[in-house]
């Protein structure tokens, strides 16, 4: 019964436009800046993590996601992953 009530509450919240979970530490433009600076070689991942006060693992995940999206874009031009 608890599981049913919890799932019903989550569905109702989503219907109202609310999203669960923690808010992202970096904005979309900050993420793009990190990827651009590190891939171009202007700054290291460690420098960008200190600049934006996030862990190096966060920067590493951003770079990995960017590589996946680039590979997907090369395989299927005109499509992007969410």
Give your account of this protein's structure:
It is a single chain. The protein is elongated, with a radius of gyration of 18 Å. 7% of the residues are buried. It has four helices and no strands. The protein has helices at residues 2-15, 28-40, 45-52, 56-75. Helices cover 67% and strands 0% of the residues. It is an all-alpha fold. The protein has one domain. The mean pLDDT is 90.
List the helices and strands and how they pair.
Blueprint: H1 2-15, H2 28-40, H3 45-52, H4 56-75
Helix pairs in contact: 2-3, 2-4, 3-4
List the defining traits of the structure above:
82 residues; 0% strand; mainly alpha; 67% helix; elongated
Oligomer: single chain
Instruction: Tally the beta strands.
Output: 0
**Helix/strand structural class:** mainly alpha
* Residues in helices, as a percent range: 55-70%
- The number of helical segments is 4
Short structural description:
The chain is mainly alpha-helical.
């Amino acid at each position: 019964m608890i599981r049913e009530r919890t799932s019903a509450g989550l569905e109702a919240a989503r219907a109202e436009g609310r999203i669960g979970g923690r808010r992202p530490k970096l904005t979309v433009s900050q993420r793009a800046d990190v990827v651009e600076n590190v891939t171009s070689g202007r700054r290291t991942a460690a420098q960008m993590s200190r600049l934006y006060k996030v862990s190096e693992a966060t920067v590493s995940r951003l770079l990995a996601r960017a590589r996946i999206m680039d590979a997907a874009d090369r395989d299927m031009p005109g499509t992007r992953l969410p």
